[in-house]
Amino acid sequence: MKIVAADVIVSSPDRNFVTLKITTEDGITGLGDGTLNGRELSVASYLRDHVVPLLIGRDAHRIEDAWQFLYRSAYWRRGPVTMAAIAAVDVALWDIKAKAAGMPLYQLLGGASRTGIMAYGHASGRDLPELFDSIRAHLDQGYRSIRVQTSVPGINAVYGVAAQPSTDGKRYDYEPAQRTPLPAEEDWDTRAYLRHLPGVFEAVRNEFGPELPLLHDGHHRMTPIQAAKLGKALEPYDLFWLEDCTPAENQEALRLVRQHTTTPLAIGEVFNTVWDYQTLIREQLIDYVRSAVTHTGGITAMRKLLDFAAQYQIKSGIHGPTDISPVGMAAALHLDLAIHNFGIQEYMRHGSLTNEVFRQSFSFTDGYLHPGEQPGIGVELDEEAAARFPYQPAYLPFNRLQDGTVHDW
Ligand code: CS2
Ligand code: MG
């Protein structure tokens, strides 16, 4: 089934998205997500200028061969741009194969291993009353697992806190990347954060009880010993996971964290290949793999990564913020439903304009997601609607410490 066309569609309904649409000689189309927040055009160019010419005439059914060809023939391997581009092609080809087979993708991946996909939502607050209100609002929406992010006294802007003002008037946690000519500068103080956070979780547990699964994102901001200290301080509050507690380029850094705390650890949303996890998985230094299908080479690579993790009883915790498009989210849900070592799925809801551009068949009911029964991945792109929202430059913020030092955001 020859590929006869491959189009790169960049649109910006509520935020920028890069979508690849592959069309076969039989008229079957497949969609893939290549969105890399704040660097979208680099993937669009990688696809348009380098990959699309290589796809025309290829047999759309040969997914593994296409993956290996794109990974090895590039010579320059790995990295966020390359792996997002390969992911877009891979998911589009899986979408086509499942449509050709007349079944939802999860059936092609081995069928359902569960009836639904536990999702977690993002609650946050500048103070406890606001945080409690945000948690209740998410419980009312049906979420049964909640990520808790909070402001910290003495720090002006903290990742993941919804209500604080942003430069372009949008809700903060909804879209961290801001449509501004330059990245917004934010401030950070780890010692203030470490003093404040345990008290917040104590208050949340007192208010909502011991059962509710609670998650927290450290967003790469602590040194290993600071992460160990926080993990230990949070143990009484029985977190589902502490995420990205320290930058993990140096995977061995997690050995120090592991020595000091039993708080479960999740890492990997900025990783792009299985190689980024080798030590972390082999030495049981993490409990959840946080990669996104869109940033880790697609379904083909993610399945191999999660199969590797399964040998160590490490589970999935796939990255699902709004900068993963509905196409990337749908692909993740098919994988979530089929794999055995499923842990939890992040689910930040897309905005109304995004839902106009991407028609989705996945559902969220009583805290559980389901990819739906449509053949393929179950998402269609309205190209006319997409054309109404041209690309708009946007940047993620960055951090400086009190002495002006650039710090992880
Ligand atoms: C975050 C992301 O959802 C998360 O866990 O770490 O929102 C992250 O900040 C964005 O994806 C960055 O683009
Ligand atoms: Mg995160």
Automatic annotation (TrEMBL):
UniProt-listed InterPro entries: D-mannonate_dehydratase-like, DgoD-like, Enolase-like_C_sf, Enolase-like_N, Enolase_C-like, Mandel_Rmase/mucon_lact_enz_CS, Mandelate_racemase_C, Mandelate_racemase_N_dom
Coiled coil stretches, renumbered: none
Gene3D superfamilies referenced in this protein's UniProt entry, alphabetically: Enolase-like C-terminal domain (3.20.20.120), Enolase-like, N-terminal domain (3.30.390.10)
Transmembrane residue ranges: none
Stretches assigned to the Mandelate racemase/muconate lactonizing enzyme C-terminal domain: 129-264
Protein name per the record: Starvation-sensing protein RspA
